[in-house]
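Continuing the batch. This is chain 6 of the set; chains 1 through 5 are on the previous pages. Same settings as before, nothing changed between runs. Recording input and output for traceability.
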Amino acid sequence: MSTAPAPPASGTTDGGDALPAGRVAAERAVLRLARPYLGRLVGAGLLAAATEFAGLALMATATWLLMSAAGQPPLDRLTVAIVAVRALAISRGVFRYTERLAGHDAVLRMITDVRTRVFATLAARRTTGQRSGDILSRLVSDVEAVQDLLLRVLVPASAAALVGVLAVGGAALISPPAAAVLAVGLLVAGVALPALATAVTRRSAAEVAPLRGALATDAVDLTHGAADLAAFGATDTALRAAEDRAGRLARLERRLAATGFAVDAVGVLVAGSTAAAVVLVALAADVRGVLVGVLAVGSLAAVEVALALVSAARQWTQLRPGLARVATLLDAEKPTSRPVDALTADAEGGAAPDVPHELRFTDLTVRYRAGAAPALDRLNLDLPAGRRIAVVGPSGAGKSTLAAVLTGAVHPTAGRVTLAGRDLSTYAEEELPRTVGGLLAEAYVFHATVRENLLLGRAAASDDELAAATAAAGLLDWVRAQPAGWDTLVGEEGGQLSGGQRQRLALARALLAAPPVLVLDEPTEGLDPVAADAVLASALAATPVGHSVLLISHRLSGLTELDEIVVLDGGRVIQRGRHAELVAAPGWYRDQWLLQAAAERGYLALAP
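Output for chain 6:
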């Protein structure tokens, strides 16, 4: 009953999406979202620079204090330095805490926006064949790359650059030649080494993000699909594939660690060499006494700060694939502006107004792959406002494809779909679900309470409206029997519910939303025949007058009151009419009706 996935776009990476054009496009797309929080981020950068400068000043002042105290001068000559050391030590901690507070506050606010936009784009791509593990990777690790870009790359890099300039300026006050040598050392540590780190880690880092996404997919398959894998004897094969990916990821991360260690070792040599060169040049310039020690220790501390740029560059290289994947989704967003139309939802975000919604399929053809047989072949179907139609047929007949086209998840290859005389493709993404919606195949149940899952259908629904929807779906008695009532947690993907209860909860949510065109794809899946007939009858009775219903079902029981039944096979209409007409005529419908009736009589005879 599920639709076949659409083929992925050409030029995609292992991560599943084509990378944006231009190597800086990913950062630019992400940083556009940081504009509302620019003041907070600049403040965090200045506080980070103040933290590093306080540490540098602390090292230089402490060195001067220790070397001066060795000569046993009068205590009043050391008082200012003693106070300065204490003040710098305290202020460094205060600056660091404030910088973390400001930076994380800005970034977490921004990440909320990024996750919302990424989730919206992924939801719109629900038929592109992406696996849930890869989606999880995008929502977690890839979006965290945005956070790391700001907190671990841009903020420390800008702070290190500012402190390096201040360090060179301070050294110039003591010895301009020594300051020139320090500037060279800082350029090597802050420019050359980061470039080297980027070059040696780029290739490995580009493979890490897709592998992590694939490994997340393996984890989901091995846990949620354990029963299916065991049933088909594929557990060992799936485990070996996951172990191979895990091994590749481990080797890549070991390679990154080894190259990182080598670059860090070079950084230590650069720091020591710079300090030694500064001392030699300072002595040659007739700098004597404690100032030589201050220059030496200050140079070591300044280069140490500049070496933070190496970590930032390495981090940036590792983040770029994840950033590119997020940027692709952000660039794929469509404008949220909605056309002014009689079908536009009201300002309070409720359901679309009750105006006639005539739905018409004209020569509709859907082909998932070029050269493949069409899932729907020149289908013509009218669904006027208030009309109730059932679409039945064998598995693979094209029933769920029809629902996917109607909800905008699949685009027709040929033909037209119009709603109220307007082409379905012209509806805005946020407008269409308020007009056409309902219970689709594999409706998702969130790890939340019963109330929270239902309110996804209509956020402003009252308890009486929740009770009416759940009663129509046959779930109200169960809810009232729970100690927590509406606040009962249903578990991840509704894991605390039976299959039938999960289906009823999803059906109640669809009925609560009450779109003018209600699509019900297998609404009684997982229910026994008696319960299925009762739930279907009550769900149809609960549909408001004037609202259309498109029912997709493999069960033929309970369809007697529908206005029309359409039988699909191979994407084409092979029979149509009311139940009584189809049962009386030879064909697939009558044959299937007799088979199902006999099977259900046998089930009821054996039932306790």
